[in-house]
Amino acid sequence: MSRPPGPFPVDPAAARPVFAPADSPSFRNALARVPAAVVVVATDGPAGAGGFTATAFTSVSDDPPTILVCLNRKSAQNETFRNNGVFSVNMLAAEDQAIANDFAGFTKLPAPERFRAGDWTRGITGAPMLLRARVSLDCELVDINPVATHNVMIGRVIGLTIEPPVADRPEVLLYHDRRYREI
Ligand SMILES: Cc1cc2nc3c(=O)[nH]c(=O)nc-3n(C[C@H](O)[C@H](O)[C@H](O)COP(=O)(O)O)c2cc1C
């Protein structure tokens, strides 16, 4: 693809395919290189308990405190989250890979049984909050926007917990290059 000259020098020697066409596999390979915190998104209420492991989580605004998390529309849990109207986002500690595996479905547990590992309490909204999480956000579900394959769930953060930093050992569980890492 030819491009207009830009406000920067173009080095003809650097002729690698910088602009590879983006399709689903190349996109997945690119995003696999982006380190992300591993969170468990959990809910409870009239529709029952549920939760899933996620990396598609980010801040939206601090006024009012607002986050988003993306849930695949194939998951039967979409209705659980919609009907409960509350959820938490729990950033896992480095040692909690087993909890990540349970909530990712790797251990084949039905969603309500994924809470067997870890100690849980309830936030102000009634959402389950993981006691060992490094950070937990207690959210009201204020909007759900379907985008491509996923539902973007918007959460208004009502309460939160923060664990103090730990020295001299890994603190947080990340996902990078299709495997867990600890920092
Ligand atoms: C590291 C990691 C990150 C994940 N991130 C997401 C995510 O952001 N959104 C999502 O919908 N599923 C994500 N998944 C997959 C879900 O955790 C998995 O599909 C889970 O089983 C959903 O529960 P359900 O299928 O019983 O509803 C991730 C899995 C792993 C291991």
From TrEMBL:
Keywords per UniProt: Oxidoreductase
SMART domains linked to this entry: Flavin_Reduct (SM00903)
EC id: 1.5.1.37
Pfam families referenced in this protein's UniProt entry, alphabetically: Flavin_Reduct
Molecular function terms, GO-annotated: FMN binding; riboflavin reductase (NADPH) activity
Domain Flavin reductase like, first and last residues per copy: 31-182
Gene Ontology terms describing biological process: pyrimidine nucleobase catabolic process
Protein name: NADH:FAD oxidoreductase
Taxonomy of the source species: Bacteria, Pseudomonadati, Pseudomonadota, Alphaproteobacteria, Hyphomicrobiales
Gene: tftC
